[in-house]
Amino acid sequence: MSLLLVVVLLFFSSSCSVSSGQYYVSDYCSSVTQSPCNPLSVYAGDMSQYNNTIFYFIGTTTINDNVTMTAVKNVTLHGLDQSPSINCKKFINNTAVYIYYSDHVTISNISFSSCTVEIDSSNNVTITNSVFASDPDLFYYLVTSNAFDLKISSSVFSNFVEDYTLYIYYLPLPVCSDELLHYSLMLTNVTFTTGSGMELYMTHGTTYNVSIIFDQVEVEYCKSLLFQVEGLFYLLIINSSFHNNVYALFIQFSGISESSHCTYPGIQVSSTFVIESCQFYHNPFGLNILSVYFIALDYHIIIKSCLMYDNIFQGLSIDGTFLRLTQIDIIDTELIGNRVGNKIMNSNAISLSNVTVANSTYTGLTLEKSSVTVKNTLIFKNNVGVVGGGLAINDSSRLIVSSSANLEFIDNHASYKGGGIYSEESSHYNFILLKAPNVSLTLINNTAGLVGGDLYGVYVHDAKNDQFHLTNPNISSTSDAVEICFCDPHTTTSYENCLHH
After folding, report:
1. Sign of the CA dihedral with 274 first, then 280, 283, and 286 last
2. Domain count of the chain?
3. d(CA 16, CA 8)
4. What three-state secondary structure class fits 154?
5. Which element (helix H / strand E) includes 42?
6. Phi, psi dihedral angles at 469 (to 5 degrees)
7. What are the boundaries of the signal sequence (predicted)?
8. What range defines the domain where residue 371 resides?
9. Alpha carbon of 392 to those of 157, 286, 337, 387, 398: distances in Å?
10. pLDDT for 1
11. Could you tell me if residue 74 is inside a domain?
């Protein structure tokens, strides 16, 4: 290699990248002992030249112009003292921090005030121990678009009046890969409070798979967490709480376009959404699941060990109109004190195991055009309604009771009909289907204002002549008459002692 070529290459390399090092950033460098120290504006002119670099922020740093990092590697922005912050100039449009096409970028121990932060097409991004806040009457956000292997931990999103929202987008790749690609997203110990929120949009189809874990996420006094999902993913929300919000957690499934559909030989594409050990309380609406398009992909939703209580309207609402191929399993979950109860609509693949529904003031659980299977214990206690205190089976719905099931209806009341269970009279398709004999059924102290204290209009379908095992045989049941029995109500207490005609 000629000497001239070596000189040219060395010059080109030095002009594109600064050697690794550490720099100090402050608006008041005269009082900073560390060096080199400069205001951020000194570095911001061409942040893309810094690789393998740590920027230490001291005190408050004000941004008057955009800060852009493009194609950098191994760059860290770290707050050094107890209250480091980056403030964007108020009322200046589009003043923001931009990170594009970069790898291994870390933001830690920094408070962003009224700043928009955008991260696009980057890998291995970590945000930790940071705060994102907005001033009154201004709208700011942290938005990521195809930020793969993103980690956000020990951070707070807050706002005084309007929004500071976290937006996360997963978009399809332009072409299908020969092998299925895997990426990750992790939120750990993250708080959304005081008017902030989060929206997750997954429109990547099957061009890659995303593994998402939300662990110890708290959402309080916010608009909502909105998940609009489609495609290939595993999503786990665990040990998290949602309270005093408008919509606590709103999950909307969307269809997959042909342009974002890829196939992989020998791999069955399916997605799983797990909500485990979470609490939803003091919201107008708790957990809402629906779809706006027909879903052809195999989805599996698991709600496990959750508590939904004291929500103003519904605690749990599922509309499976376009989720006919989606299996939803609700396990070890309590629905307590939700005023308008809980509702399952247009669903045909839902199972309940060890579920308790209690203290609702407008029917504990309503089924509309749905088929629900009881796999284990299902308890209705102290619910109140008009037609159906505990359970209402409406619009051609059916309750399928498996051999391991155990049903309990205790202290429920309907002001009109069916204190324990109400089955709508308008259709003969509303029924309880027994899959085995001697399934345990407990009916204790259920009442109704008009008729059917325990049961009203309930038709038990048993193709094999299976019957419930009544733990308390003295029940109050009313439906359409199929036989007349004359008796003295003061002396005759059982149907067998009547004079039959």
Report:
1. positive
2. 1
3. 13
4. strand
5. helix 40-44
6. -100, 105
7. 1-21
8. 107-500
9. 41, 20, 17, 7, 10
10. 42
11. no
Three-class secondary structure of residue 12 per DSSP: helix
Stretches in the chain below the pLDDT threshold 70: 1-20, 90-94, 135-138, 160-163, 255-259, 296, 426-429, 461-466, 475-501
Q: Rg of the Cα trace of the chain?
A: 30
Q: Are 357 and 343 in contact (CB under 8 A)?
A: no
How many alpha carbons lie under 13 Å from residue 427 in its C-beta half-sphere?
A: 11
Instruction: Report CA 413 to chain centroid distance, whole Å.
Output: 32
A 10 A CB-CB count for 89 gives: 12
Strands (E), 375-474: 377-381, 384-387, 391-394, 398-401, 406-410, 413-417, 421-423, 431-434, 439-444, 447-448, 455-456, 460-461, 468-470
Is residue 432 exposed (0-12), middle (13-18) or buried (19+ Cβ within 10 Å)? buried
Amino acid letter, 149: D
Residue 245 is assigned to a structural domain of this protein: yes
Number of H helices, E strands in the chain: 2, 48
* pLDDT at res. 95: 79
Q: What pTM, to 2 d.p., does this model score? A: 0.89
Number of Cβ within 10 Å of residue 329's Cβ equals 18
pLDDT score at 254: 80
DSSP 8-state symbol, 437: S
Domain membership of residue 427 (yes or no) is yes
The structure tokens listed for 28 are 């008041």
Query: In this predicted model, what pLDDT tens digit does every residue of 252-295 receive, in sequence order?
Result: 988 666 668 899 998 888 899 999 999 999 999 999 999 877 77
Task: Give the Cα-Cα-Cα angle 158, 159, 165 (nearest 5 degrees).
Answer: 70
Nearest by Cα to 97 from 133, 60, 70, 126: 70
Distance (Å, rounded) from C-alpha 393 to C-alpha 430?
A: 6
CB 291 within 8 A of CB 273: no
- pLDDT of res. 464: 65
Q: Within 10 Å of residue 208's Cβ, how many Cβ atoms?
A: 23
- Side chain identity, residue 119: I
Contact 410, 442 (CB under 8 A): yes
The DSSP bridge partners found for residue 391 are 365, 421
Residue 322 lies in a domain: yes
Residue whose pair of structure tokens reads 């299996």 in the numeric block: 327
Three-state SS at 229: strand
